[in-house]
Amino acid sequence: MLPTDPSTASRRGFNALFKNRPFLTLWSGQILSQVADKIFFILLIALLVDYKSPVALKNSMRSVLMVVVTLPAIFFGSAAGIFVDRFDKRQIMWVTNLMRGLLVLIMPLLPKQFLILLIIGFSESILTQFFAPAEQAAIPLLVKPENLMSANALFTTTMLGSMIVGFAVGEPLLSLAESLGGEYGQEITVGVLYVLAAGLLYLIPLKEQRRANSLVAVHPWSDFKAGLKYLRQNRLVSNAMLQLTILYSVFAALTVLAINLAQEIGLKETQFGFLLAAAGVGMIFGAAILGHWGDRFHNKPLPLVGFLSMGFVLGMFTFTEQLWLGLALSALLGLGASMIGVPMQTLIQQQTPEDMRGKVFGFQNNIVNIALSLPLAIAGPLTDQFGLRVVLLSMSMIVSLGGIWAWYSTRQVLQDVL
């Protein structure tokens, strides 16, 4: 995946991607879609004030809304992956974005009831489950194998950037939209972002190789079993998926622990976002390095270094009280995470056959979202029971040992492809 031939290396990096118009179209559509996703989530929370409900249950309503938005990722992830393998990926991408945009645009016409808000959020999330694996499966169809690392690095960078930008500017942007566009300016703004993303994705000249009668010859349940069988047999792909699951679980736990961490380093509880933003900056920096100079890291144990770096940072957090050090460690955590996320996602894309990618990425989204629910549920109670230091040190050991085990189990194969 990362040969060191200079003539090949010269065709790598972001420069090669910026000359690839189909990929740039996909990337632009991703940016609009990701930003719209983040602002839409903020819009749902903001609209709780206007939708009829008991004031005393305001916090419970937020929790119910978040759970409802998360459920489709757990229940529909694998099914969406099977669907993606059976139908045109370009069509899935632009249609799902168009439908998401129309759902938001019709919100002003619907009754302002909490149940309506839940239905809209649930429906949007279902459509997202189909868009995500189609987007991931489309990348290898638009770029050459030697550019996959750069492409995934760029997508990771923009995904994190849209998260930071979307959550940072979401509320001011919605307020501006309301002041300029009137009562329904917020819904119009988010809806238009989705529609613009759909328009860009419609223009992608995506060509797929399809098996004859592939849509009717195999039952969806057979597809599901074929996907599971593939993951059981392909140790490399399943191991990479496991490493991504560990990575995302750590960040899920940190979203809960960041509130306490912020207080430890001198920030207010409400400023915990600075720690998460610093981690995002570190991931962007790491993804940019891997994307532009990935060929120089051939044969390097990047995931192992990433896990050990994250384990080190989690342990150091327990002894940190200075603001600058806390932010620096958080950025280092993000840098280590990029050494896991970018190579492992690239590995899955390259090692998975085209007719299996939708199923594999559907399983990936399914497994990751199910795994995320555990650290989100137990991080808070464990901190209350044992204290922040014990939880962080435990996480440090688990992450380090998990990384060593993952590398040891597949190191010979990984050294050939990373």
TrEMBL record:
Coiled coil ranges:
none
Task: Give the primary localization class.
Answer: membrane
Gene3D superfamilies hit by this protein: MFS general substrate transporter like domains
Per UniProt, residues of the Major facilitator superfamily (MFS) profile domain are 235-418
Give TM segment ranges. Answer: 31-51, 63-84, 104-127, 148-168, 188-206, 236-259, 271-290, 302-319, 325-348, 360-380, 386-408
Q: Where in the cell is it found?
A: Cell membrane
Quote any Pfam family the record assigns. MFS_3
Topologically, how does it sit relative to the membrane? Multi-pass membrane protein
Any one of the GO CC terms: plasma membrane
On the tree of life, the source organism's domain of life is Bacteria
Claim: Transmembrane is one of the keywords in the record: yes
Q: Which UniProt keywords apply?
A: Cell membrane, Membrane, Transmembrane, Transmembrane helix, Transport
Q: Quick check: keyword Transmembrane helix in the entry?
A: yes
* Official protein name in the record: Major facilitator superfamily MFS_1
Q: Which organism is it from?
A: Crinalium epipsammum PCC 9333
